[in-house]
Amino acid sequence: MTDTPLPHPIPAEKNLSPVWLQSLTARGEPTVYDKSKGELRYIGMPVGGIACGLLYLGGDGKLWLWDIFNLPKEGVIPRSVEVPMAVWLGSSTFQARDGGGYVVPYAQESPLQQGFVLRVVDGVERSLDQHGWSDVSFQGQYPVGTVRYTDPACPVQVQLEAFSPFIPLNLDDSSLPATVLRFTLTNTSAASVEATLVGFLENAVGHYTAPAGRRRNTAEGELLVCRLESPTDPTAHDIGTLALACLGATRATAQVDTPGATRPVGALERTLTLAPGSSETVTFILAWHFPNNLHLPVPDAKTGNHYATRFADAAAVVGYVKENLERLSHDTLLWRDTWYDSTLPYWFLDRALASASTLATTTLFRLGTGRFWAWEGIGCCPGTCTHVWHYAQAPGRLFPELERELREQVDFGVGFDPETGMVRHRAEGSAPAIDGQCGRILGVLREHQMSPDSAFLTRLWPRVRRALEYLMAHDTDQDGLLDGAQENTLDAAWYGKIAWLSSLYAAALRAGEALATEQGEPDFAALCAARAAQTQAALEGELFNGEYFIQKPEPGREGALGTYSTCHIDQVHGQSWAWQVGLGRVLDREKTVTALRALYKYNFAPDIGPFRQRNRAGRPYALPGEAGLIMATNPGNVDGAFGNVSDWQYGYFNECMSGFEHQAASHMIAEGLVTEGLTVTRAIHERYHAKRRNPYNEVECSDHYARAMASYGSFIALCGFAYHGPDGTLSLDPRLPGDFRVPFTSAEGWGTLESKAGVSTLSLRWGRLRLTALTVRGHRTTFSPPLLLTPGTSYSIPDNTAH
To answer: Terminus-to-terminus CA distance in the chain, angstroms?
Structure first.
């Protein structure tokens, strides 16, 4: 008697609610989290500058975490989490890299006392947090967090807008170690009210190393500065300055008596008289300056934090922000308004941009040399890892200067071996990774497209060509498919013919063809084109099993870890990347769509619980009762489908890692499987609902994981966006029917494109835009001379395509 194979633990029919499915594409309403629903506890929106540390804005308006002191640590708050078996089937002890912060989310925690208090004429003081008001709500539209405080017992209601300047294409002004807090006070009573807003700050300089020295606050006019005089070790990681400014302050105090404070606390306040029904705004600026970021495992760390090369101390940061406050605030709020001035669903806009806040966390650093250096997630896995960061689509579209610097300084700089063409996947001293090498070549194409001219490409091209030749040499038998040891992001060298990695190879070859053509090297372009066609034919002829693309083992290594006959989330990643950079098809459409349908059928679980009952290895990035797209499944229940399952990396296959999910979702959308792609994206969004955990911290091997910035790729796909800065061409082909309005970014400017009632209108909000051609839903308009748009200008053209 033979055993009957177990049924596949993921249902082919998802049985999703029709109402829920309709909500995927409905515009909906902005998300507002409320105290009364218990939704504020876990919220932590990053409100510091890019690569300036990590400061959270809580759901109740409190600033918390304060990871600005260059403290070496793994995870937002390092700890060990014990989880009952009833919550997670499998191992019950989790560190940050194991998903501890996912299973047991972090709640507000702070190493210092800081806050704001409203004092009205009757002497009653109300802290501006969830304890001081009957109703507190939070609306997060990154980069701006809006908190509203109301209470029928108080004649003054308060609204807080908090943000660090975040202006796409303006990297320096988006990299300030500062937070702007704008409190709008409204008198809701029938009589005039005198109200005082107080901001206080504890001197936490030297908090962790506690070097000898005197903590001293100085307060004068609008500014409070906290410092440590004559520290015994001025190079300690937590030595620097803190500053708080209150514009129009009516009182400044260097030291106040605050219960529980162990260090001197200073305060600033402003008193207002509010007429009935009137409102007035009080602006605070918080800044920090801790230059000694010396612990990172990279030689450039000895140069400290880049912001210290621009500012002498926190007071200088405040001075810059104050001097430029009108412009910085205007441009930040303009981006927020431009992003949300769209016909796309609010929930989708939230999720697509939320992970970009990773740039304002301690996942990423900008060092004194100007070099960007990053972990994969906070404190976990060093070296701006190519096989992780190439998934991240947000930085290249929002801050292309950042990605150009990474390509030039790191991937094709310190991480490049000119003798072989190898791109080391962690820069200094590491080995190559095939997926990362392909992704960085494709990144060069994206960064070139997001440049105003060809200077960047011209500088890099000889090394990019060498990197392509390295990949070609990895196909030793010249059959179109990569072979030998193929190191990849699942932390093992796979062997055999692997659809995932060879699809990325095909896309890299097509990128090489495009770049070589632009560089005037037709012979090399032709070589890349021929190799790409050969690879496509081999992928479709050898590795498509009729439902999806697979891996064939290398003879003699049949037991090595791999995905083989399973359905793998990244099986057609190369075609996904191709859509992101306008390369068109690198794989047959019918086979690709069939594979994506199979991925949704076999890997998307509306509830991962039954799957976890069968497959207990892996980390908890989705819990029973939650939906997710599993990394790899074995729908045929084939013995040995993953090779050696005793290898620790086998656990990866059973996980839901949001960066991979976003990649697959964006590809589904690009291929017209819009419902499937949005379903996967919405599943991630709901896993990160504020009642469950922090909406801004997508977890994979530690917190604020870089790969999650793949979410922006779903936005690119849904818009059908393609752009080439040097050529001056812009194209949008939205995947949703009907009128649409979406934001866009380009090499030098950003704005909105709207198609309505047969007319398409391009409006520029910031910077400049030069176009030689605009294509909307297949209708192309050329401009000779080029169309030049500046802020506040627009251009309208009839759209002769059916909507």
So the answer is: 60
Phi, psi torsion values for 324, nearest 5 degrees: -110, 15
Is residue 803 predicted with pLDDT exceeding 50? no
Q: For residues 394 and 680, give the distance between their C-alpha atoms in angstroms, rounded to a whole number.
A: 18
Residue 521 CB neighbour total at 10 angstroms: 16
Q: Is the pLDDT of residue 798 over 90?
A: no
pLDDT tens figures, 224-239:
999 999 898 999 999 9
- Residue 539 CA to residue 669 CA, distance in Å, equals 22
Q: The tokens 């008697």 sit on which residue?
A: 1
Instruction: Please give the pLDDT value at position 3.
Output: 57
Going by the DSSP 8-state scheme, the letter that residue 380 receives in this structure is: B
> Residues 466-503: pLDDT tens digits?
999 999 999 999 999 999 999 999 999 999 999 999 99
Q: Is the pTM of this model over 0.90?
A: yes
Give CA–CA dist 315/217, Å, rounded. 12
**Pairwise CA distance, residues 746 & 318, whole Å:** 30
Annotate 412-481 with three-state secondary structure.
Answer: HHHCEECCCCEEECCCCCCCECHHHHHHHHHHHHHHHHCCCCCHHHHHHHHHHHHHHHHHHHCCCCCCCC
What SS3 state is found at 166? coil
Candidate CATH numbers 3.90.1170.50, 1.50.10.10, 3.90.550.10, 1.20.58.220; the one for domain 375-719 = 1.50.10.10
Two structure tokens written together for 8 = 């596949």
Task: Give the separation between CA 707 and CA 660, rounded to whole angstroms.
Answer: 7
Which region holds residue 266: left if phi is over 0, alpha if psi is between -120 and 50, else beta?
beta
Q: Report domain 33-69+111-335's class.
A: mainly beta
